[in-house]
Amino acid sequence: MHLRRRRPRTAPTCSERALALLALAILVPLEILAGHLAYETLGELDSALLLMAVLLNLPIALLALWRPLPGAVAGLVLGLLLIPEQVILGWRLVEVQREVTAIVTHAYEVRAATGRFPDDLDDYVPIDERNLRQVQVYRLLKSGDFQVLYFIGTRDTSHWYSSSGGWGYYPD
User: Sign of the CA dihedral 76, 78, 81, 82?
Assistant: First the structure.
């Protein structure tokens, strides 16, 4: 029976280490941005958890110094776990805020024409129907003002516009 000899492991080169660390240097700021964006899309607790997960890059960086390829792969996997969902939710945030801005504009146009804000959004023509799924409520207040509430990643976070107070957000 022949046993195959293992080739001796060669030490990683400087360029291999540099490439692995460069990958981390690109991914970590994107992960931090994703964590901060999560505050607006998912709330403060999820944002804090994502930002804490970014700390996993410290042992990954050490691994990348010792074993560049596994370190780079681990960094990429962590980046893929943290970044894509926030990119999608960030895009949704932009789209829904654009829709809500159009709703607000519509309400002020109705008031300019009739002297009061609309009771509902029956006459409103949406930019994109899909964005209305994120709009929780449009309501006319007893004071004659109106309020639009909407969410992005979870209903536990509330974004709003109020004609009496402007734009607001409550994270959890």
Answer: negative
Single out the residue in 89, 121, 142 at which a domain terminates: 89
pLDDT digits (tens, 9 = 90+) for 53-100: 999 999 999 988 888 889 999 999 999 999 999 999 999 999 999 999
* Phi then psi dihedrals of residue 8, to 5 deg: -65, 140
Q: Are strands 158-162 and 146-150 parallel, antiparallel or unpaired?
A: antiparallel
Can you read off the two tokens belonging to residue 169? 């957000």
Q: Report CA-CA distances (Å) from 131 to 5, 92, 103, 150, 158.
A: 62, 8, 11, 10, 15
For the stretch 30-45, pLDDT in tens is: 999 999 999 999 999 9
Residue that terminates a domain, selected from 50, 71, 89:
89
In angstroms, the CA 160 to CA 147 distance is 7
Domain residues for 36?
Answer: 14-89
**Whole-angstrom distance, CA of residue 110 vs CA of residue 23:** 52
| Total tally of structural domains belonging to the chain | 2
What gap in Å lies between CA 155 and CA 148, rounded to an integer?
14
Q: What is the pTM of this model?
A: 0.81
d(CA 105, CA 118): 12
